[in-house]
């Protein structure tokens, strides 16, 4: 594979991965404008974010079997088409209920992109390079929190919040054509895969029973939820509590994303010298410690805006290192049914993200304490899952070795 081809593959796969996050981040600065326009509250507008997460969670499981049965591109075309139509519908939303419903449909369409991208990484690249490739995808993914909120703030101020969904529609169309002309489907469709509920459930169960998958999928999913906590709570914390403008919020959001992106690229260097398992064992405890410091500082009201930014930057940096390694480790045991495994991996992340985003919305936005508390709970649970799960992985490996000796 030439360097130019490698670059374009990463760019297209990264764009697919970034579609859903971009759809989230771009409209965040428009929350107050949407609330005024649709005669509702900012908290009610935040429900359109929660339904987006729920739509992604449900859609992941839909596309997994389709990607394995029909190949990667046909289900991807379907999902992108749904996304484009729903984005146009969001533009014409006349009330908050319509927007909430259409955001759910938009999410179901967008998640085809992320599931297909993860499966294609497993298809196109050697297993030993997967963690590095995932880190590069995060670099492209990082353009979302750097560009989307800032652009969303300026677009909202200049043209109104409706224009954001025109931009997202154009993005969906461009990605559709990039997939059509820039990607080759290297996976051979498996016509033997059944789309009946029974076999699908059996296939999902086979993936879930693998100790390496469920350990790193759940550990990484819970840890990754710290990013969702930040995304869900940041409009209230920064614009309501710290009283920053929508434009300033966009710049803050972009600046904090440097922690997430930069850490993922540091990870590309780390995996050359350390195994992913070892990196994860350091990243999760570090996230627990920083989250605990954040909660204590927010509780005592001693951090202010600057201190809160430093703590959030630290947590997001840990997530940036954790995510590519847990994704690579979770998918490593699978080749034939990588689409199903990718769907479950994404579903774990988004389902947990949906739960925490709803949880954040239940607390009044009067301080950063709810954000910090939920981050600490997420990081702590991730650590518990990691230690418990690693014991099961070790037992299965030892058992396999014993069977080999016996034979």
TrEMBL record:
<keyword id="KW-0472">Membrane</keyword>
<dbReference type="GO" id="GO:1990961">
    <property type="term" value="P:xenobiotic detoxification by transmembrane export across the plasma membrane"/>
</dbReference>
<comment type="similarity">
    <text>Belongs to the major facilitator superfamily. Bcr/CmlA family.</text>
</comment>
<feature type="transmembrane region" description="Helical">
    <location>
        <begin position="47"/>
        <end position="64"/>
    </location>
</feature>
<feature type="transmembrane region" description="Helical">
    <location>
        <begin position="248"/>
        <end position="267"/>
    </location>
</feature>
<feature type="transmembrane region" description="Helical">
    <location>
        <begin position="343"/>
        <end position="363"/>
    </location>
</feature>
<feature type="transmembrane region" description="Helical">
    <location>
        <begin position="213"/>
        <end position="233"/>
    </location>
</feature>
<dbReference type="InterPro" id="IPR011701">
    <property type="entry name" value="MFS"/>
</dbReference>
<feature type="transmembrane region" description="Helical">
    <location>
        <begin position="161"/>
        <end position="183"/>
    </location>
</feature>
<feature type="transmembrane region" description="Helical">
    <location>
        <begin position="305"/>
        <end position="331"/>
    </location>
</feature>
<dbReference type="InterPro" id="IPR004812">
    <property type="entry name" value="Efflux_drug-R_Bcr/CmlA"/>
</dbReference>
<keyword id="KW-0813">Transport</keyword>
<dbReference type="GO" id="GO:0042910">
    <property type="term" value="F:xenobiotic transmembrane transporter activity"/>
</dbReference>
<feature type="transmembrane region" description="Helical">
    <location>
        <begin position="76"/>
        <end position="94"/>
    </location>
</feature>
<keyword id="KW-1003">Cell membrane</keyword>
<dbReference type="InterPro" id="IPR020846">
    <property type="entry name" value="MFS_dom"/>
</dbReference>
<dbReference type="InterPro" id="IPR036259">
    <property type="entry name" value="MFS_trans_sf"/>
</dbReference>
<dbReference type="Pfam" id="PF07690">
    <property type="entry name" value="MFS_1"/>
</dbReference>
<keyword id="KW-1133">Transmembrane helix</keyword>
<feature type="domain" description="Major facilitator superfamily (MFS) profile">
    <location>
        <begin position="9"/>
        <end position="390"/>
    </location>
</feature>
<keyword id="KW-0812">Transmembrane</keyword>
<protein>
    <submittedName>
        <fullName>Multidrug effflux MFS transporter</fullName>
    </submittedName>
</protein>
<dbReference type="GO" id="GO:0005886">
    <property type="term" value="C:plasma membrane"/>
</dbReference>
<feature type="transmembrane region" description="Helical">
    <location>
        <begin position="279"/>
        <end position="299"/>
    </location>
</feature>
<feature type="transmembrane region" description="Helical">
    <location>
        <begin position="100"/>
        <end position="121"/>
    </location>
</feature>
<feature type="transmembrane region" description="Helical">
    <location>
        <begin position="369"/>
        <end position="389"/>
    </location>
</feature>
<feature type="transmembrane region" description="Helical">
    <location>
        <begin position="133"/>
        <end position="155"/>
    </location>
</feature>
